[in-house]
């Protein structure tokens, strides 16, 4: 991916019936969001689709054309319902092959453990021709990179280790400056005044995030922008506005 | 939504910059998945998009045409970044109005508490003309239903209360019969034998979900189908297969 002037963007595709049935709670998308934000890659979309080839192909093709990077989790294990590698090959128009490098890694891994390199385990060497491997410190079976698609495991510890391997290879950017202002006031109290401040700082993202403790509503106001000085100015304006409202209420 | 012979389907649209930045972990999609599965509504897709009107409109229009029901969370509060109601109005082609029923509810709510019904709070009465209200036991501010789109709050306790109000109004279906078989074996050991069993039961969804405890891989095999007898037969075949492999390994 050649460097450009625009900040890089990303999408996450979570693949798995078990997420949609509620059996498993996805943790990989939230983890990816936490890791990308500080390195200036903007995660712009998350999708979850079932273990169905057509659904995976359609989602991958929509996302890979819209974002700098696409990350996927799930469906690269040794069982019959692990269909992600074949679906990615179809999406990028490359033949699905058993990768020689992956075969060598897994042959050695199982040999050292006196375990048979079964046909099921051999499924984990399949990827689109021309892919790069994503090796990692947790799992012998590698993920892979095809075009701008980073295909990683669904098990959170393996996903995270694969992300450790991948992040240093990506085009990073200046992270946004972020300030958070907590308030015991509800959004209905400060909503209009905050809207006026947000209008004065059009280049900044100013968001309000309500909480409800069962009785009271409170909120956190988050200011995000490239210009640290302007973020600090907006923060000071918001604090002054809240102080004035606390005096009134 | 008229009843049909086909089981109802659903999609979830999570709206919010805070999820994509990793600041907040979404809990509503997982909660929805857990609630829909037992009542026979198949959650088939989840998307997360930022607080941007065009992105919300595009996602809502794609999802509402593909699924029986669309549920949204987030962006219906009183601040300037709460743009969901206006985006839904645009998506369904209805004018955005301040709903008289919602005004009456909130006027009474704030009057009882000696709080002003501010312009910010009044934003929470906006919805596409012709919507139904989603009232609930936690929040005075209602969600709303426009066409097949159920627009609900982002705060998990309010989202859950709105779902309580909504579920009894939906077209339910027979839930799938589900059996889970836990095994201490790794997927690479039983993958081929499981694939053979899955081929013998084509009407059933047989999935394998690996776990990694830092040292060992184990797995759970989940069988899902309409026919309880066939699910029981598949379960017995899988247990016999695993017993045989344990004897060998």
From TrEMBL, chains A, B:
According to the entry, every stretch annotated as the MoaB/Mog domain falls at: 11-173
InterPro entries, per the entry = CinA (IPR050101), FLAD1_M (IPR056596), MoaB/Mog-like_dom_sf (IPR036425), MoaB/Mog_dom (IPR001453)
Q: Where are the transmembrane segments?
A: none
Which SUPFAM superfamilies does this entry report, sorted A to Z? Answer: Molybdenum cofactor biosynthesis proteins
Q: What is this protein called?
A: Competence/damage-inducible protein A
